């Protein structure tokens, strides 16, 4: 049967994706190339509903894909979601996924977390701006899901699954940031059928203490046991969520809290959960002795979970983790029959039950008399606006701030750096009673709160400026480390009179730009020294233990008055100020050694934020703009595929920037042109020099 389903999927892929999937990187593309990339596109659609064209653009499989085949970034939610797909096609439904694939996938994840976007191919580059937004969004660290899209029905080998879990656990030592999901042949077959054509799911469920509504439409409600809900999901999987707007978002704060409640306090689960709502074509009691208030079995036809998909998914995961513990949990369930409902009623139920705004911990804090007084003090003493209720418009920068921005600023400037880490990994954690009391205290002072906000803004403004000239690890430190840097800078200022209305706080703020640059150098050196030059910067700023050690080292260095550590040259963008000699020498070295065969196709990859901002969309408009063909010549080694003219590497980059942004400035051509699977021209030139026994700088592009 699986072979028949595979053929069905193949036929649909050929119809839907033949004209959309990019195969231009393949000299002689095969049908398997199309099918494998179509599988990655479909997996993207399952996780992020979108058109076939958008799904096809998500695919970057090929040379320098770093073990990943497609990417999707969701920015609409409060906490961004990043989905990374690796797809394995097999005509017989027996796709393999082993240890090598796990290692490659995890390595690709590492590169993304390091912001080493230049290591990926040109088709990945179009997604970099959204990735940057995801990592810079308010609310903490984005949620990342690794999706294994496998054309198979057999479960994944337990050893391979454990290896993958072990790799993911390294990123989740503080808070769950990364998860994985396996999509198999059944998921793909169900998806291509579509909701309307999908087979109706029929099921039998048991409700304890059930009741019913008969007017105007029939519905049953009662309690289901966790094992019964888990078994329902195991049997029908994601088909249960055919009508649901959001499907089961397996890695969300809500989902994690649901799962943890079941594993830690299963007896409280019924009270803490909002329950599950299912739409059914019909709901029929099984047997004639079903009495309201007791236990009843019901036969459901055409059943779909329209609200509570996260609850169902979390129940299944918790039950899989510890069946004995989770079995004590129970959940409230509603069964709504559509048998006698008017057309469109089911859609109304689905929309209404999924668009109610949940109450957050922050909402309760807005009722605190101390926050109300702080709002009044902002208005009376500072003539500024202080917004404490969610949904109210945020004031312009010069006119005030919100309670959320205030909490973040107080976390960054708190004497204990662990609050900066807490805010960085999950901003909502600041609303827990303990953290909230520690940050605001019983009677927060308006002058102190506003001045801390001003400081954090000044730090961020300077970091934005610095990031324009930074790359790779230094850019990651400036991006992820804003709260850490603010903490270090605050310790250098005279804050003894921060609550005094007459203190000259502007004089302190004037020191911030210079201090930020020094603090960045000290912080990056501290991270490298404490945890190694290949460690994750993101881990150092969101782990409470690590951030304290890094902050302590950086603060001590600055207070001692030592010169700030200089950033490595490879971390800095150099255009017009870059000596031309070394760049020209790199090209001469390659030509002299005939290191690159004539006719090799090279890819252009932006290496700095200004270039990505100026050129990403321009490059995506015409793929040929990012390609050039190499020749071993004394001059003009690259034939640009956009106009078929010949240029030097640096001359071509200068011409491209001029066309994309109107800016005419020198550029490091060899840093931007890559031989796929090998590295940049600069990296390859260094490798040639090393073979010749010459002293060279360390390169990393080819790793």
Q: Can you give a write-up of this model?
A:
The chain has 703 residues and is α+β, with helices and mostly antiparallel strands. Helices cover 48% and strands 14% of the residues. The chain contains 31 helices and 19 strands. The strands form 4 sheets. The chain has a 7-stranded mixed beta sheet with strand order 8-9-5-6-11-7-10, sandwiched between helices. A hairpin with a 5-residue loop joins strand 5 (203-213) and strand 6 (219-225). Helix 20 runs antiparallel to helix 21 (472-480) and helix 20 crosses helix 22. The protein is globular and about 90 Å long. The two termini are 43 Å apart. Mean pLDDT is 84; it is low at 246-252, 576-582 and 697-703.
Characteristics:
alpha+beta, globular, 703 residues, 19 strands
Characterize this entry briefly.
By secondary structure, the protein is α+β, with helices and mostly antiparallel strands. Helix 17 runs antiparallel to helix 18 (418-425).
Terminal CA distance reads 43 Å
Query: What is the C-alpha radius of gyration, as a whole number of Å?
Result: 28 Å
General shape = globular
- Measured by DSSP, the beta-strand proportion falls in 5-15%
Number of helices in the DSSP assignment: 31
Helix content: 40-55%
Tally the beta strands.
19
Describe the sheet with the most strands: 7 strands, mixed
Strand order in the largest sheet: 8-9-5-6-11-7-10
Average pLDDT for all residues: 84
